[in-house]
Structures are given as C-alpha cells and as structure tokens.
Amino acid sequence: MQTKTHNNHYRIYIRILLCLALVFLFLIAMTGFAAAETKTGTVATTALNLRSGPGSNYTSLGLLSINKVVIILDETYDTSGDKWYHVISPAGTEGFVSAKYIEVNNNAEYQHDGDFEAYLTSQGFPESYKPYLRQLHAQYPQWIFKAADTGLDWESVLSAESKIGTSLVASSSPASWKSMAEGAYDFTTGKYIEYDSGGWVCASKEIVAYYLDPRNFINPIGAFQFLTHSYDETTQTKEGLQKVIKNSFMSGSFPESGYDTYADVLMEAGKISGVNPYVLASMILVEQGSSGAGGCISGTVSGYEGYYNFFNIGAYKSGSMSAVTRGVWYASQSGSYGRPWDSRYKSIVGGARFYGAQYVQQNKNTLYFKKFNVMNGLSSVGTGQYMTNIQGAESEAASLRNGYTDSLSDPITLIIPVYKNMPSEACEMPGDGNNNNYLSSLSVEGFSLTPEFSRYVSDYELVVDKSTSYVNVTAKTSSSSASMTGAGKATLAGDTTVINIKVTAPSGDVRTYSITVSKAENGQSQQGETKLSSTEYTFDDCVRGIGEKVSYSTFVKKVTVTGGRLEVVNAEGSAITSGTMSTGMKAVLYDSKGEKLSEYAVVIRGDTSGDGKINSADALAIQKHIVESRPLKNTYLDAADINGDGRVNSLDVLYVQKHIVGSYTIVDKA
Asked: What is the rounded distance in angstroms from the CA atom of residue 430 to the CA atom of residue 211?
C-alpha cells in the first residue's frame, strides 16, 4: 500500500509540473506576442484632444501634450474619411486621437553605415549628437543633416538667452520653468513679474537650457525646428499647405475679393517673400490660434478698426498699450512692407516680406534660428528674435510637420546648430517644484563680509587676522523647502580658504554662494558678541522691571549695549528718542552691521492703556476685560496681571486702586 500511494503521489506531482510548464510557456508566448504587436505613437502637436470617439464632434477626455507617447490599439476613420487612432494615454485613459497629429514609432534599428558615419564627422557633429542622428536616419534615411557651426561657447549663449525678458513662459507653466532671478520675481509680494500681456513671465535658466539644446529635438517631430524656411516650389505645394491649415480658420474661403482661399494667398506670399508658405501658415496658427481668435486679426480693435497683423509683428506690451493694441497700431502706420495693412491680404503678404527680409535672409532661416539668433555673433544673441516664447519653435515645428505628413520619406534638409563646450549629455527638463535656491541671510559670526550680503550676489570675500583658526558661517534659505550644505564651523587650514554654501531648490536646481577667506597681518579681528545687559531690567521675550513714569533717557542710560545698538520704537513702529516709556513699545537690538537681531516688548505692570502711567483708566480697562466687554490682548494683558499670578481678576483691580490712592505701590521686579 505504501508503494502504491507513493507512486500515485509521484504521478500527481508530475502532472502538476507539466501543467505549470504549459501555463508558463503560454504566458511567455502571449507576452512575446503582445510585445511584438504593441504599437506606439508620439504626440506631434502642442496640445491634442483625447476624444471619446473617432471624430472632433466627440467629447474631449483631456489634452495630451507634445512628445507624450500613446499605445495604439487600432485605427478607424470618421465620416469625412480622416484617420483616427484608438489609443491608451500615458495616464491609462482609453480614447481616440486624430492620426495626423501622431508620429507612429516604427522602432527602426540603425545598421552601421560607414559612409553615414564619415558624413556626420565631416559635418562637424559632436559625438553626443550622433546617437540621435543615427536613430532619425534609421527612420528617415532620405533626410539630410547639416551642421551649422555657431562658433559660440555654450555657456555664453545660455547666459545671454537667460537674461531677464529675453525668453518667456506662460504664468501657468510649472514653477521650475519660471525664473526667480533679480527682476523676474518679487520676494516681497511673492509674485512673478509680468513681462508681456497675458501673464508671460521670465523663463528659468534651466528650461532655457532644455529648449536651447538641439539634441532634445533631433527626433521626428522636433526636427522640423531645423527645416530650412526658404521657398521651394518643387516641394512646397498648395495640397501640402492645405494639410497645415486643415480644420483651422484658414481652411475656409478667403474673406476678401481676389482670392478663393487662404491657401492661395499664402502660396503667393511665399513666392513673393521667398519664404516657405508652410512656415508662414504655422506661424499664423501659433500667433492667432487655430480658431483665429487672436485680437490682432479681428479688425475691430477700438481706434484701429480695419487693420490687421497676422504675424503679430511689433505686438508686445509697451507703456499703456497692450500687445494687441500695439500690434494693430504697428499695422496702421505707413512704412515698409506695404504698411498700412488695412486688409488681410496686405497683412499676410507684408508680414511674409518682413519675415523674409528680417529673418530668412539674415541667418535666421529656421524656426530654431528665429527664436535663438546664434548665427550672427555673440553680440546678436538674445536680440532680433521673432518670439520670446521659449516654446515657440517647438509649437510651430509640430504645426509645420503637418504639411509634410505625406512626404516624410522625401529628402528634407535640416540645419542643426553646434556649439563649443557643450554639456556631455543633453540638458534635461527641470523637475518639479520652484527654483528658489536663494539665501535670505548669510554672515560670518564676528566678521563683516565684502560686499554686504544680497541674495543675488554669490561671491564674497573676508580678510581675517593670521591668528584666526576658524570661522562660523550662518545662513538661512529663502524657501523652507530648499536644502542647504556648507554652513557652520569652517577650519582655516591655509592662507586662503574657500567656503561654499550650496542651496538646492525644490526643483533640484543648485546655487552656490562662495566666501573666500584670506589671512593677513592686518586682517579683521573677531568682533565681540552683540548683547544687552542691565542691573535694573531683564530681557527675555519682554523687557521687565520698568516702573511707572520712567523716561526714555533714564531707560537707555541703565542699559549697556555691547557690539551693536539699541533702538526703542512706539506701538506704531516709529523710533523714539524722548518721552515716557510705556506698555506696547519695543526695544530693538541691532548688530554693528545694522542687522536686527532681536526685539523685546515693553511691559509696565498696571499700564494697560499704553500711556506710561497708572490711573483710574487702567483700573477700568481691567474691569472691562474681566466682564469681557473689551478684552485686553498681548502685552496689555500682561500688564494687567499686577501680582504676576498668571490671572487677571478683581484682585488686580484692587491693587491698581490702592496704587492710585497711595496705600500700595506696584513694583515690577526684574
């Protein structure tokens, strides 16, 4: 029986193993099948509606931003014959998106090509560019890449493009995209400073670096930032242009006589100006919106009715003028490029001529170069740019790509800038949180820094006596969410010591404050500690021991200040130099540099009215407090506790009354 039972158990064990093996093989097969069949796509427009069904008439389930990757489940067509993809968004939401705004990822693998590698090297592309170029070449082998040597140092360009007002972002952008540099942020009000109408504020250096770095856009969508803007009648057709403007306000008929459609006007404008008409169309869509709701083309701006500025040339906030008002004012002035632009046709053709002369023919012949003017020397960087919006080139590139959806396999020439001394890897988009990596205070105990501390100044000097072996650095961050290293005791090992205080913002951005400490025969000796002392009064959270009718001059004579100065202010905060001390005043201690160290509330027992005297008005005030008809607060409540038992009651009223008639004397002992 034991042998038979054992054999049965063995057979069951084998069956279980076989079943598990089959399940395992099935899962592997299914997983492999799923992986092979998974199809993904990248959003190729600034903001794409995820809809509940295949068509623009279906409800929007939310917006997908540019470069987001979706899983494509299936494809279908709407009633007008346009293709739609059934997708799953990065958030896991299932819906439909227009296929024309999706770049399908074909995951083409690059096969080593000696000629292509030699070409990249001959063009002068750095090694860090090549992985991106190889992948793009694998997907679109007909595309032509040309390196544009700017001759400029990366950090110099980044610094120029990060100057206040040069590059802007919408105020609704993530906090890490917004600058907190001097002139960009008001630490007093806690608000970003607006630099253009509609809430445009200064871009942070980190987001500028991301958009300035060409490597971040060497991909099927971003690459259109580098497409040449010159007119080419062999590749730029009316049919292609109509794809750019489809479903926009320009897809319909042209509202002025002489031309049937906007496409006809744009094609003529391109030919006259020497500018790619696809580029002209994408510029208008970015400036005026796909619905054409931009104020500069309404023709109804008060005082400037009948004037149009399709490209928003000269449209920026100036004095009392909003960006829109100034834009149509510019259009109304007699001048170059066929102004005044008192018709839509004149505005489109005139704006195209302006763009051709001022940009395409001035080494600003791509979307990238019209945002970043880097081909005309360092002195030109940050000037003469077509747009301040740091995302402008990216937005227009996505729109421009729509005109090439049926010709992506054709030769396209891309002009890609190269800089000297670039970072070894592409600059990343800044993380979450704000960029507050500033200090609100910085000092070296007992010494004075040169220059005086300012949150915007990063480098300081300190010369100490040769006998000094260490210093103590104290610092405080402006943001409670920021972290800091480097403060505290620092040993001075040699003749010169550099102390670095590093502040890391919530976004991860780091700012370094440096103090160079040098030893010298005639250097500063450590100053004494700033402090107060008195045989008459005590200083803790309050000044105690001051009696009734004590004058200001008597008070200050009985206080010794070491290493600083004392100031007395009244209840309104104004400094006094005479009169009587009273409840509600404050004694404020400053160090030798004028920095406020501490303040002490003045409390005179019995003086509940703040006039420095004890009389019937004080007794009445205590009585009203007891019956809750007029409660005393703060130092005035403290002054009402005559016997110091921590309570205010009828006994305190009695003490005041006795003091008034002379049968008892209120004494506030120190």
From this structure: 11
Written as one string, the DSSP assignment of 241-300 is HHHHHTTSGGGSB-SSTT-SBHHHHHHHHHHHHTB-HHHHHHHHHHHHTTTT--GGGSS-
Degrees, nearest 5: CA angle 190-192-195: 155
Average per-residue pLDDT for the chain: 89
User: Cα dihedral angle (266, 272, 278, 284), rounded to 10 degrees?
Assistant: -60
* Proportion of the chain above pLDDT 90, given as a percent: 66
Q: Which residues contact 523 (CB under 8 A, 6 or more apart)?
A: 463, 464, 465, 466, 468
Taking each continuous run of H as one helix and of E as one strand, the counts in the chain are 16, 29
201-220 pLDDT per residue, tens: 999 999 999 999 999 999 88
Residue 520's pLDDT band, with cuts at 50, 70 and 90, is: confident
Distance between CA atoms of 605 and 417, rounded to whole angstroms? 76
Q: Using CA atoms, how far apart are residues 177 and 204, in angstroms rounded to an integer? A: 5
Q: What is the pLDDT of residue 524?
A: 67
pLDDT of residue 498 exceeding 50: yes
What CA–CA distance (Å, rounded) separates 575 from 238? 77
Q: Are 567 and 554 in contact (CB under 8 A)?
A: no
Identify the three-state secondary structure at position 192: strand
From residue 446, alpha-carbon distances to 275, 465, 597 in Å are 66, 12, 13
| pLDDT exceeds 80 at position 644 | yes
User: What average pLDDT does range 189-199 have in this prediction?
Assistant: 91
- Round to whole Å and give the CA distance between 529 and 535: 19
Which range among 190-194, 299-303, 525-529 shows the weakest confidence by mean pLDDT?
A: 525-529
- The secondary element (H helix, E strand) that includes residue 654 is helix 650-661
Cα 498 vs. chain centroid, distance in angstroms?
31
Which residues are CB-neighbours of 669 under 8 A, at least 6 positions away?
A: 544, 545
SS3 state at 576: strand
Nearest to 279 by CA among 397, 175, 199, 185: 397
Find the mean pLDDT for residues 223-249: 89
Is residue 75 within 8 A of residue 84, CB to CB? The reply is yes
User: Could you give phi then psi for residue 250, rounded to 5 degrees?
Assistant: -90, 0
- Tell me which residue has tokens 């110091």: 644
Q: Tokens 């000629």 identify what position? A: 115
